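Schema walk-through. Below, the input block comes first and the output block second. Nothing else is stored per chain. Lengths vary across the set, and this one has 339 residues.
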Amino acid sequence: MKSTFFSAVPLLASIASAAPVEVRQATNIDTTVLQFALTLEHLENVFYKNALTNFSQHDFEKAGYSKDYYNNLKYIAHDEEQHVLLLSGALQNAGVTPNAACAYSFPYTDVKSFITLSSVLEGVGTSAYLGGAPLITSKAYLTVAGSILVTEALHTSMQRLAVGEVPMANPYGTPLDPTSVYTLAASFILNCPAGNTALPFTPYPALTYTGNACTLEEPSGKISDLIKRNGWGKWGNRHQGHNQCRAIAGGSTASFTAASAPPAGSYLTFVSGLSVTSVKGTINGNTISAPIPTVDEGQTYVFVSSKDVEGALDGTSVLFGPSIVEVAPQPPTINYSVQ
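--- output ---
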């Protein structure tokens, strides 16, 4: 097992060929990055507006959430709409036609499952902007992306707190490359307008967490088969009926089901904060298992990789994934001698 940190140059980034993309770009791909960001913002914009259409303030209050929470949720929806308008305008000013929203299917069934899925989606959005930042050439675009990143991180904290998770479970944000983000987003996309420009990303084969712990995905506290099929694993640690749902602990063994049998010698690679850790997997058919690294905390992305990753995870080593697990943070430690 090796726990390493992202270096300044070979960050988690990959384009269609799944080759690593470094900070020094030979080609300016700013409009591609903006189009990709717009794709994510369209998804979030529709996600929140659908929920506000489907559920009233009274529905949220019945589920245990306050009027203030509901009002803050409308602020999130407003933010996502503004992000769509801003990115669309930036593309138009660059002479590029912005992609339109697609048709989506979101696997939530009630207020609580919506909020839980929201907490994960917001985490992915935050990771997407952080991972995409090194790909941007224009300093003006980079400032805009950083501004949106801050807001997405605020959304993430609010929704994590709403499902009983530590909002700042990891001292560091987790960068995630565009192909991995697109893999997660694509599971919600049914179809897109024919006139949209195709993005240069091909989703990785699926990887699904196969744990048995309860979640907030269904009113009964059981795991939603629909969400499991889409690769969205376990999260949440609020009371649900008589069950206490908890995030998985670092050091615990986690099992994942891949779209096909992982090759012998494959690793489970965990990406959490600035840490990338590869653990040799135990393989049984399509299932691969390994202990979760003790350095992992909060929303963690899990891949099957062909090798023990050293320094950064590039697309050439990814076989399946990502899946998502919520890892319980260690109790906070404070050294008062540090000034």
